Amino acid sequence: MYDAAIDGTPTPRAEPVTRHNLLDAVTARILRHIQEEGLRSGDRLPSTRALAERFLVATPTLREALRRLEATGAVEMRHGSGVYVRADLSRLILVNPNRTELAAETLADLLEARELIEPHLAEAATRNASDEQLAVIAAALDRAGHVLDDDAELHVANMDFHRAISRYAGNAVLAQIIDSLVDIYRQEQRAILEMYGDRANDHRAHLDILTAMRERKPVKARRLMAAHLRDVRAVVTGSSAR
């Protein structure tokens, strides 16, 4: 937009940057940083001070932009640890920050949805994943095995295991669906972990799935994943596994 000067020459109209526009700009720059650096879910961002200095903004403004991104599920701010990428930024579904209370039927529906998708992904990943990618899946389980007494860390490691399988199955859309389910229903997933209770048995089931994958037995991996999720759903819903 232009204003006319006294002599008739057009001059640019002043457009001060509002705080709202500044937050939008900082938020966009953080997302661009994640994309340009190729950061994936679980990767750690630089410190808030380093990001603030990089983007030439005050640290409180940077933190507010990060809180915006956390509300949509794009990042996770872990107290005393740092800020981590949570979502695959190419996906179309992000977390709704206006969460309601847990509902029992939601837990059952979530597990049923996973039971319909994840056995197929376990089979596909067994066929398609490279040895290096299987090592990433194994690393998530190794972390889980060391934190069986820490529900917060165990939840992260277990979900990383399921995310990795979906990521290496070879179907980007299904991988995004699982990634979205894990993030959107993070609260419910934690509740499921607490309700299932048997951490050691849960871990053994995951290890059995990994073994089938490493042995390149896709049908067995599919069967074990289906049985595992069916067992969890039976315990959580109080019904008998069929």
Automatic annotation (TrEMBL):
Entry superkingdom: Bacteria
Oxidoreductase found in the keyword field: no
Matches recorded under InterPro entries: GntR_C (IPR011711), TF_FadR/GntR_C (IPR008920), Tscrpt_reg_HTH_GntR (IPR000524), WH-like_DNA-bd_sf (IPR036388), WH_DNA-bd_sf (IPR036390)
Alphabetic keyword roster: DNA-binding, Transcription, Transcription regulation
HTH gntR-type domain mapped to chain residues: 20-88
Gene Ontology molecular function, alphabetical: DNA binding; DNA-binding transcription factor activity
Matches recorded under PANTHER family: TRANSCRIPTIONAL REGULATOR, GNTR FAMILY (PTHR43537), UXU OPERON TRANSCRIPTIONAL REGULATOR (PTHR43537:SF5)
Record's protein name: GntR family transcriptional regulator
